[in-house]
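Could someone model shikimate-3-phosphate with this protein?
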Amino acid sequence: MNILLCGFMGSGKTTIGKEIATVSDLNFIDTDEMIVNKVNMPITQIFDEYGEQYFRDIEHEVFCDIAKLNNKVISSGGGALMQDRNVKVINDNTYIVFLDIPFNEICERIGNNDSRPLFRDIESAHKLFNERHGQYKKISDIIIEQALTPRETALEILRTCREKGKK
Ligand code: S3P
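Reply:
Sure, complex below.
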């Protein structure tokens, strides 16, 4: 079984993913980190020097790589599952979990952090949030809305996935 966490920037995919790895036998991986390692450059620099399309192509390569893995909890970049080609390569033993956090809470969490090229101002980020929300809902197997602690959220996700019973 794999668990793939999706949701907007700042929805807690990395925090919850690491927590799931702590309380289970799944190993944590992060698609943004894999991209940074492949290109050997921080994300903002990839966007600045090569543009978003190049970033998306590398992101797709990473998705093809992770499709072969098992026993992982994967934190995906906020835009990754907006590309159908990435949704298509996700293997059958993977649960897609959407961390559905309200936009105002996301803004509080992200603050003035400028490491995200697609979160430069609140207005355009809010527009992107609204454009993406329906797609996250459509492609996910499980939606987590409650404001629980990271530990409680991790346990809730694991319990729900195990109940659904994929390999
Ligand atoms: C992006 C989200 C980022 C990162 C890149 C693009 C997006 O990941 O992949 O900056 O399109 O929403 P996080 O969601 O982990 O911040």
